[in-house]
Structures are given as structure tokens and as C-alpha cells.
Prior knowledge:
The structure holds two protein chains of two kinds. By secondary structure, chain A is of the alpha+beta class.
Amino acid sequence: MNETKYIGRTARSKEGPRHVTGRGRFADDFVMPGMLHAVILRSPHAHARIVNVDAAAARAAPGVFAVITPAEVQQKSRPFKPGRYAAGLKKPIPEYATAIDKARYVGEPIGALAARSRGAAEDALELIAVEYDPLPAVVDTAAAVRPTAPLLFDELGSNLAWKGSLRYGDIEGAFKQADKIVKEKLKIHRYSSTPLEPLACIASFDAASKKLTVWVNAQVPEVIYDALREALGLEDIRVIIPDIGGGFGQKIHLIRKYVVLVSLLAMESERPVKWIEDRSEHMMAAGHSCAQEFDVEAAVKKDGTVLGLKFTEIDDVGGSVSTLTIHFTNKLNNLSNTYKVKNIYLEGHSVVTNKCPVIPNRGIGKPGMCFIWERIMDRIAAELGLSPVEVRFTNLVQPGEMPYTTPSGNVYDSGDYPGLLKRALEKIEYEKLREEQRRERERGRLLGIGVVIGVEPGGRNASRDMAIFPEMKESPGSGGVNGATIKLEKNGTLTLFLGSPNCGQSHETTTAQVAADILGIEPEQISTSTPFDSDLAPWGVAAANSGNNFHLYDIGAVHGAATKLREKVLALAAHVLNAKTQELTIEGGVVQAAGSPIKKITFADLGKIAYGNQAMMPKGFEAGLQATFYYTFPHGEPNLVPSPEGLVRAQFTFSAGAHVAVVEVERDTGKVHVLRYLIVGDNGAVINPDVVNGQIYGSAAHGISVALGEGFVYNSDGQLLTLTLTDYGKSSTMETPRIEAEHRPAPSPFTVLGQKAAGEGAAIPSPAAIASAVEDALRPLGVKVRELPLSPEAVWKLIEQGKG
Amino acid sequence: MKQSICVKINGRVYEDEVEPRQLLSFFLRETIGLTGTHVGCVIGECGACSVLLDGRLVKSCLLFAVQADKREIVTIEGLADDGRLHPIQEAFVQRYGLQCGYCTPGMVLAAHYLLGRNPDPTEEEIRKALAGNLCMCTGYMQIVDAVKEAAKKVNR
């Protein structure tokens, strides 16, 4: 590669201009000739048998073209195959796009209808008569597992749908050698990322050729592709993914149900059908993160060294088995956090309840794992009379130990964790801050400082699951694959075809910067083909706007494709210029031979030759200037597939960040004000600092908002009380603090540019940082923070408890 | 039952028949074809559908199309001049004041409304002015910075 001109610095945003002018193209912006509008029939009950669905009146209503009831869903589609998200399920439970005989959460789809206008569709929906036999709702995990509890799935014989455990090292030995056992019970609530654009889909079916085309704002094309094939038995499927108005995991999994339903309506009506979810539907049925309860024990020496960690997790997975274990299995990804503990035992319990199913959400179980570590570190410090910062320093993996293999088999590629923490303390002026806190406490102010640290894994390895479910007969696939194509056009400009869709992470800008540097051209000369189109794009299992995959697989693929194209460009130019390839340099889209200023040729002239002038091509040269590269991570061994001891690389790159939160608690109201929030982070070699900072700010803001109160609340009947963004408690500009971010990159030795992940980012440690800071603020009252969210009400209760 | 309305949108006059129950946001998107006005909640919480109605910032999901009769609207499509970005739009691009782009039209118009009344706002004033526009991606940092940058440009 030429010396980098574009990698490592900001660039003009490729996506920005279309969005600031209202020219972004989102699914709802597309209109097809004859298009119908769909609405979904949903259960008003948390738990009910579906006795009868009578849609005759709706079918006869004006403008109605198609109605789908559970009977038709069963007749016209097949259940989804239990994917790896359902791993651990003891008995197969068929799951269709709608409930069939029983509704298990408020908002669960029961049917769907398509009419000429949205208004007509909504009017007709009222005419469908559903006879329900309501059953008692199961809304909390403790009640759910009592022997007398009503069962969600009779087939399972219990609401405890899965239980399993893993152990690494000698956990009994660690607890025997300990000076002290520190115990705590912790809890994280249900929340989501509430993307501003709700779920959206258009389906169009050509009955003559049996080709189904869907335009959908899904994050992972493969999920949609597989779902449609499995459910509808079709082979010719085209998935088009236009601009996505935010994803965060919310648009990966459950969205498949709606794509199948809308496709059934399109097939039935022989018309294109559009479905746009509304906000309350999104809140009740588009998926929540999992409420997790943890019972944690740490075996520690007097100096704070952690010898072992044990935890039991209870996951409230809601009313579906299709994502039974994802919040537990993801614990393997950051199981050790930044610490060098050798002995770990983890035990998971997945409990089904009459709530919205859980789905992936920015980090899935990883914020929970970081919460376990960082809460227990504070508890260890308090019980041993040590400083919380000191306890962390004592246990950090040292930079000299990199690459570091964790007890579960993860290989941390690079990182200076003590350096991150040290710099964060310096920058926040920790000692001075503690002084100020002492002074202000005397005056009655409740000021708190929370210091935490966390890793942020990136990359993908589904075979991780085999460590947790040794009974798995079939591998869910190991590692990841994603492709990219780059094409030099006849006019010398370049077009990129990326394998994954973009939810706002500036994929077009970042990949253009990388390709520009490799090919010696300005990023302005490179455009990306949008929308994502499965008929055109090279893509693989890691073509996923999820799992922190972009930095590894998309960048790897674009890097590979651009490198291949560069070789072709040089081969052709060398022939035309009668020079050796090693004498050639490329700058500004011009290939120049050493020694003579006139021995040069532009990309445009090369394009003309490659696409139209056979005589000027070297012998054996494949005409055209286009290259495709599929990337897999070349350093996936050892433990790409779990060893007999369950050692496995759960992910492949490890970013990290030290977070400091400074908060003030209002004594009378329990309201928490974040006075400062600082992150010193290592996201490896940064390709575009503005893009990476955007990911850091956004993910931190979300984690802080989650910690301070945003979340879903159900009543005892299983009715969701937080159907709007206001009730849910989403933070606006007024509640969101300024985030200060500094980079201390430790480039990954394993990736093409030293890059690491940045998407899930600060959403992983930030809930723990806020919990730590609020507990510190309330220290004069002697109360402990064990649960999120720390809404004003919850904090006020803690204050009252402290007074009492 | 349809009613006739006459609305000036981005400088062009439209005469249309609308159903009384049609919301202004859907009128703009579906009847006029200006899809830059986004819909995120339909109950006035998110601000994605913000437009300028007679120069004032409104949430178009909280108005019926008939309420715009004989009035003037500016949508996000009306800010750029012949493909040349308005300084506020340019600042949002330069400072990465957006990620997914869904809240962006509303944010840009909210910033436009603020800077029209207060050309040199403090951070607090910017945050207050944007408090009715939710963004789930950015944590608002680069949006606020873009508005500061835009204020400099507009004042120049």
C-alpha cells in the first residue's frame, strides 16, 4: 500500500449529504405499482388460548385483498428451523410467523391483513373476531419456575426451558485458597435500543417465476434469506436492504416473522405489500434485551487478587424459545473482562415468561458480564478496605502478556489495560476529584465517582455455542465469512459492492478510505452500490450489521478486493507502459513508471483497455478490472472449534475502554445528574476518528440512559406499561451528558490494518460505570446498588432505605 | 368527504384533495412525495417529522393536512439551493452530526429554527432547542457540535 493518506483521519462523509437533504432511501420511501398496505393482528392478552379466529367480515370489507389467520399460516408456511439462538432447547417447539394455538405475550402476532390503504386495513382489522381463552400470566422468573405456575409451553413441562453450566480451571481449589469470599446478587432490567425507524418491509411475489423480492430494514440478510426459504419453501429470493434507520440488534431476528407474514400477504394478493410497524407495536413486540439476575461469588486474597469467580444467571427470555440462551452464551465473549483470573464457573437458567421475546441488543449479554465484574470489584474493594481502583489494577492483564489467552480460550490480541485506566484517572484528575468529593460531602452534597473498565470483543464464531451445548450434533458454523467486490469503471472511478448493509455506521465512507489508500485514488472517486442487494453483493455469514463484525470482515474483504484489483491494475499498466510492476506507483488514479515522467497511464485509460481493447492486454490477462475477495479471519486457531475442555475463541479482536462517571444525586428526588463522563479507549488502529467517536458517544449515551431509567415495565397481568418513548424513558439532549473520549490505540496484530471493533462499544461498560458512581454518591447513606435501572424512583427508595 | 387544500411547499404551490383524517406528515410523504419527512412515532414524541409551518417548527404528525391549508411549509428538501447544501446541512455533514440519518431531517430543521431566532446559541440553548428531537444513534454529541459549527457559518 502507498503511505496512508486517508486511513487514520477523518474524511468527508459519503452518507451525510443524502441524509441532510432528505434523500436517504428507507424502506417506507419505496412505492410499488398496485402496492397494498398491511397491518398485523396482535394478541391483547399476555397468555391466552386462541379458540377461534373468524376473519369472514374482514375478508369482505372494502379494499381488502388478503387476510392471514393462524390456520392459514399453518397451512401455507412451515415453522422456522430452530436456529442457533434456540440452542439448548431440549424438545423441538415449532415456531411459526404467528401464534397458532396460544398467545404468549401482549402484541404477539396472530394474523395479518392487506388492503388498498393503511386506513382501510386498520378499519378491516377491527372486523376480525378472535375468541380467546385467557390464561394466568407468568411475569416473573421466580413465580414462573414454581411447580404450580401455568406453563407457557406444555411440551417443556416447565418454564425453566434450559439450564446448563461450564467451568474453567480449578474453581473449588480457588475458593479453598481464598482469604475471603465476596458475594452479591445483581440484576439488570429489560430495555432496548428503540431505533427511530420502526421495522419495515415490502414484499413482492412474481407467481409465474416464483421469485420473491423483499425490501426490508433487516441488519442481517442471511436471517431473512433463511427464514423465507424455511418458512415458504421458496428458492428464488432476493433481499434488498435500503438505508436502515438504526439497528443495534433490534432488526436481526424477530423481524423475520413479519417478513414471512408480509410475503404471505403478497403471495395471496398477487400484489406488492408494504408493512410499516408503528411505535407501540415496536415497543410491545419487536424484541427486548433480557432481564438478567446474577448470583455472584468471588474468591479473593487479602490484597484483592481474584482467584476465582462463580456466577449463576437467571434470564427472563419472554414468550418464545427462539432466542433462549443468547444472553448467557454471550457471557463467554467477555467472560474474563480485563482480568487475569484463572478459575471461572458459570451457570445459566433460561426462564420463559409472558413478555416480549428477547433479542440481540448492542452487546447482548456482554453489558451483563461487565456489570458482574465491575460491581463485584467495587464490592471486593469495600469488603477488603481497599480502593476500588487499586483492586482493578491488581487484577488487570498486563500489556507484556499480550496476546493473552483467557481461561475460556479467548485470545486477547493486544491492549494496555493498566495504561487505559491510568490515563483515565489522570485525565479526570482522580485524586483532586476525591478531595472535592470529601469537601462537598461535608456540605451534604451526594457526589459519586465510578471507575470501571471493560473489553469490547469483535468478530464472530458461532461454534462457540458447542462449548455450552456439547450435545449439539451439527456445528452452527465456525468463524465468519464476508465478501466485497470492487470494480474499476470505464471512466476510471470505482464502485464498491459491500457484503453487509449499513445502519448508520458510515460503512460507505470508511471502506472508501481503505480502498482509496490501497488503490491510490481519492475517496471522492469511489462510490458504494446501495441498497444492499443479495442478487448483486458478495456476502457470507458475517455479512451482518451485528456482532461487531464490520471492522473485521467488511474491512478485511474490501482490503483484500482492493489489493487484488491493485495487482490487476499494475499488471495491465506494466504491459501498456512497457515497465516492470515493481517500478510502478499509483497516485490520484494515475499509474506512473519510475524514471520517465511521460510513462504514465490513468485509471480511465486502463478502464477503456480492460473493457474494450483486447490487443493492448497482456497474454493471459483476464479482461475487465474487477476483483472480489472473501475474507475469513486468518488467526482463528487455536480453539476455533471448542476443545474437549470447552476452550473456544468466542470472538477474535478485543477493544477496551476505561470509563469514569462523575454523578450527583438529588437527595430529595433521587434524580441522578451525570456531571462528567470520560472514556479512554482502545479501538485499535482507527480508520476514521469521527466515525469511531460517533460509535463511542452513541453507545455510551445508550448505556447511561439504560442505567438511569429507560426500560420496559410490565404489570402483574403481563400488560406492557411503556408503550411510548416517553413512558419508556428515552433520554433526550437534556438528559444525555457530554461524553469525553480519548484514544489510546493498541493496534491488533491480527487484522489487516490493526483495526478493532467499535460498534457495541461503550454500551458494555457504561451501565456498570453509572451503578458504581451512584453507589459511591450514596456511600454516606450506607446503601448498595445491586439493580438497574437507577431511575429517580429507584434511587429515592435507596435514599429512604439509607435514612431508615 | 375529501377536502380541497392549497399549500405552498418549498416555494411551490400544491392544490390537492385530502381525506380529513390524513396527517400532514403522510400528506407530505405520500401525496406530495417528499419522503425526507420521516415518521418515528406518530404521536409527537420523536421529532423526525418536524417541518417549518409558516416559519415555525412543528411536528407534522400532530397536524392534519387540512390544517396546512393556505399556509406555507418548508421541508428538509427545501433547504438546499440548487444542490448546494445550506450551511446547517453542510455543518451536519462535516461534523458527522448524523449516523443512520432517520432523525436528521427533523434535527436539521430544528437547528434551522433555533439559529433563525438565536444566531449564537450556547450549548445549553442548543440542547433545549433540540430536546423535542430524539436520536438513538449519536448520543447527540456530534449533532450539538454541528449546530455550533453551523452557527459560526451562518454568522459569517
